[in-house]
Design brief:
- The protein is mainly alpha-helical.
- It has one domain.
- About 75% of the residues lie in helices and about 0% in strands.
- It has 4 helices and no strands.
- Helix 1 runs antiparallel to helix 2 and helix 3 runs antiparallel to helix 4.
- The longest helix has 18 residues.
- It is globular and about 35 Å long.
- InterPro entries: DUF7553.
Length: about 90
């Protein structure tokens, strides 16, 4: 099973990382992209807590980004995560 929204978020962040000139920011984007790619293909999807941690990390990245294109890509990834999160039961 592949969770399309998390896969989309991962791909968006990976593309942003490839376009990023800031080494630290690139690493943070790539780390989040890898984590979401892994979550997208697990047998059981992540819970709200896990998704909240990724959301928080991405919000920090977006606020640290000096490049509007990078910030927009992070916002797109966040939208994908929120779309998936709406399907997760609980909280």
């Amino acid at each position: 099973m592949v969770i399309d929204e998390l896969r989309d978020a991962s791909e968006t962040l990976e593309a942003a990382a490839n376009d990023c000139d800031d080494d630290d920011l690139r690493e943070r984007l790539a780390t989040q992209a890898d984590a979401l790619a892994s979550l997208a293909t697990r047998d059981q999807g992540p819970d709200h807590g896990r998704l909240a941690r990724h959301t928080h990390a991405l919000q920090d990245i977006a606020s640290d980004a000096d490049d509007d294109d990078i910030a927009a890509a992070v916002d797109d990834a966040l939208a994908s995560i929120r779309a998936y999160r709406e399907t997760v039961s609980g909280v």
